[in-house]
Specification:
single chain, 342 residues, Trna Endonuclease, Chain: A, domain 1, six-stranded mixed sheet, globular, 6 strands
């Protein structure tokens, strides 16, 4: 019998059957979970609507005040068990207020996602994270990380009013090389203690050990190709720190890491890499490669002069190992909005 089982397990037809069943089961379970999430979201929206409509009857504010949610929590918990804590009812009520016409986008997210979004007071910021969560299919954990790293503020701080509003309404849409950039990149997930003392090779190793959160920080569409990627020109060997391929832009993305200030020769070397990849690594339908030098510090004037007349797809961006100053970033964004009103 065991021989028959072994022979069956080795059969291509059996392997195909196994894959068919497994794929169907996985897809069915995913659709079931999505359906459950949609029903939970819709139900909570309806509950929030009932609460708001009851409050808007007028008398409740004068006679009952804040006792309403406490009373509902007690009675609904007795009837239905978990799910009706006072804090959850506050979120449910807030959910309806944030989406009074039953926004369809919110129904594409799980209730856990929505709870995290409702913690954001600014409608512009909340709209961005909602769209980006849907667009990039962030898990709740990934959403929390991007909120904590102030992704919206980092992207918005360098945009004008129209760009900020578009970002809030649509999320980050990657259509050209500059859409990939963030300032600064934040690598707090590496958990390198301050004051840090690591070499460039050690930093590269730690990043590769945390590749999943690093890809999340880079953004949608990146596929890892390799580290210390060898480039050989006239029997001289060079190595690119990190190489990726971007599925949306259909091009290689080369990243070099620098601990200190970027020097002019660093940009020349990256330009050399870009030329090599364009001539030797690109295949038909690939677009020109993009080069990003990540540095702790960035001298804007030096970068401007050193890249004069050089490849327009070479960028120097700052990174930091700790979470950014949220208020400073918010101030920059609000300044852009105010300047547009003048």
């Amino acid at each position: 019998m065991s021989t028959d089982i072994q022979n069956l397990a080795a059969s291509p037809d059996y392997r195909n059957l196994l894959e068919q069943i497994s794929d169907t089961y996985t897809q069915g379970r995913t659709r079931a979970m999505q359906a459950v999430n949609a029903h939970i979201t819709e139900t909570n929206w309806q509950v929030g609507r009932y609460i708001i409509e009851f409050e808007q009857g007028g008398k409740v504010r004068a006679d009952y005040g804040t006792a309403l949610l406490a009373s509902l929590s007690k009675d609904l918990t007795l009837r239905h068990g978990k799910g009706f804590s006072r804090s959850n009812l506050i979120r449910i009520r807030q959910f309806y207020l944030a989406y009074p016409i039953g926004a369809t986008a919110s129904h594409q997210l799980s209730w856990s996602h929505i709870v995290e979004l409702l913690k954001i007071d600014d409608p512009l910021e909340r709209g961005f994270y909602e769209q980006q969560t849907i667009r990039e299919r962030w898990s709740v954990r990934e959403l929390i990380r991007q909120k904590d790293s102030s992704l919206f503020l980092r992207l918005a701080a360098s945009k004008d009013k129209a760009g900020i509003l578009q970002l809030a309404a649509q999320g980050q849409i990657v259509e050209q090389p500059t859409d990939l950039l963030r300032e600064p990149y934040v690598f707090e997930f590496l958990k390198i203690p301050e004051p840090y003392q690591v070499s460039e090779s050690q930093l590269e190793t730690v990043i590769c050990d945390h590749l999943q959160p690093f890809l999340l920080e880079l953004g949608k569409g990146f596929t890892f190709v390799g580290r210390q990627y060898r480039v050989t020109i006239n029997n001289t060997h060079y190595k690119v720190d990190l190489v990726f391929y971007h599925r949306i832009l259909r091009c290689f993305v080369l990243i070099d890491l620098k601990l200190g200030d970027v020097q002019h020769h660093d940009m020349g070397q990256m330009n050399l890499y870009l030329g090599y990849f364009a001539k030797e690594e690109n295949v038909e339908d690939d677009n020109p490669p993009i080069g990003i030098i990540l540095s702790r510090n960035k001298d804007e004037l030096l970068v401007e002069y050193a890249t004069y007349g050089m490849n327009s797809q070479l960028f120097v961006q700052k990174y930091q190992l700790y979470l950014p100053d949220r208020e400073a970033l918010r101030h920059e964004m609000e300044l852009s909005l105010r300047e547009a009103e003048q």
